[in-house]
Amino acid sequence: MKFTKASAPLKGTVTIPGDKSISHRSVMFGALADGTTKVTNFLRGADCLSTIACFRKLGIEIEETLDEILIRGKGIHGLTAPDSMLDVGNSGTTTRLISGILAGQPFTTELNGDESIQSRPMKRIIAPLSQMGADIESIRGNGCAPLRIRQSQLYGIHYQSKVASAQVKSCILLAGLYADGTTSVTEPYLSRNHTEIMLKHFGAQITSKGTTATIVPGSELHGQEIEVPGDISSAAYFIAAGLIVPGSEILIKNVGINPTRDGLLRVCKDMGADITLLNKNLGNGEPTADLLVRAGSLHGTTVGGAVIPTLIDELPVVAALACFAEGTTVIKDAQELKVKESNRIDVMVQNLTAMGAHVTATDDGMIIEGGHPLHGAVIDSKLDHRIAMTFAITALASDGETEITGADCVKISYPGFYEDLSMLAK
Ligand SMILES: O=C(O)C1=C[C@@H](OP(=O)(O)O)[C@@H](O)[C@H](O)C1
Ligand SMILES: C=C(OP(=O)(O)O)C(=O)O
């Protein structure tokens, strides 16, 4: 797919689709609740559809209409053995969260996904689940999917996680629903807390204090009505576009601004960006706002430490933004970027360099010297949706033509991305 420099400022309003993390969880927790869970603004991205497909195979009836998803939950002990391998597609979130649930089931499950999933690290969940007594193995013995999970008795543990990962934390907490006692997870920095917030609404006994989340088993979960807020990780592309295409002014409606997800807004502010939050709404634990983004000059900054988990999926777009900022931007403490759908440090450095950027890979991030004009290039997305969307935006402020290979991968998290972009970029 080809992109060229925007010929005019970007003007208009965009409503981005539902949050991927929250959509996954609504199906999973809805399946484990008794009664029906009704979800509106559900993200129909390929990853969340993988989650739906897995739970259907586990015996859960899920109805999809134009406006809503209805999950006919069967309670914590209501899942049934699948007749074949579960397919998690490209979704790390599906893989890791469902593994925690499957560890507590009285049947054996095998699960597998695409090539990217088969190279993503699963030892980070195999280790804590095994410590809880789970019988989980990497079938090829390489610490990756395919995984096999057999029935076993689970024990509550306190787990000190080395990584700030909501997938690891959620996996352990979900297994904790089936343990014989209390389970808690402490992480080095607080990662997104959608599991804690949503599970509590469903009736779980779950609490958070600082970077520790604790679950006490024994409660039943009850079906809920969930309105999924817009995904800030998807809004990120329009935020960046509005900031780097001169003269632009974009209103992005109904974006989730949970403090464990809003790091991009904080970093943009540090870079001197003009972003105003309007119509703030506290929601049901998941706050939202409309974001008014205006183009203007940006300057470099340092991004590291506790902010990293709050913008982990937005770091590719931060690296792109940094190319249009004066001075140096340092992204550090972001080793996790290496184990996403692609190695996002290498892939960003390679592709930005091809466009003329001055960028260096480090062990845990990137250093970007901003202010050097970019030009079009052939960009290999490595079938990573975040990379494809980042470069579609970068192209809008770069000379000449940019071609993105595998551009269709945006369907993972944002199927209508190019249509929404073309409404703004004429
Ligand atoms: O829990 C979640 O929904 C997610 C957690 C993050 O992954 P990690 O937990 O691996 O950091 C993030 O990158 C992913 O897109 C979604
Ligand atoms: C890393 C991501 O997702 P997952 O881990 O669910 O594949 C992402 O969406 O950027």
From TrEMBL:
Residue span(s) of domain Enolpyruvate transferase: 6-421
EC number: 2.5.1.19
Gene Ontology molecular-function annotations: 3-phosphoshikimate 1-carboxyvinyltransferase activity
GO cellular component, one term: cytoplasm
PROSITE patterns tied to this protein: EPSP_SYNTHASE_1, EPSP_SYNTHASE_2
Enzyme class: transferase
InterPro entries associated with the record: Enolpyruvate_Tfrase_dom (IPR001986), Enolpyruvate_Tfrase_sf (IPR036968), EPSP_synthase (IPR006264), EPSP_synthase_CS (IPR023193), RNA3'P_cycl/enolpyr_Trfase_a/b (IPR013792)
NCBIfam families, A to Z: aroA
Similarity-based family: Belongs to the EPSP synthase family.
Protein name: 3-phosphoshikimate 1-carboxyvinyltransferase
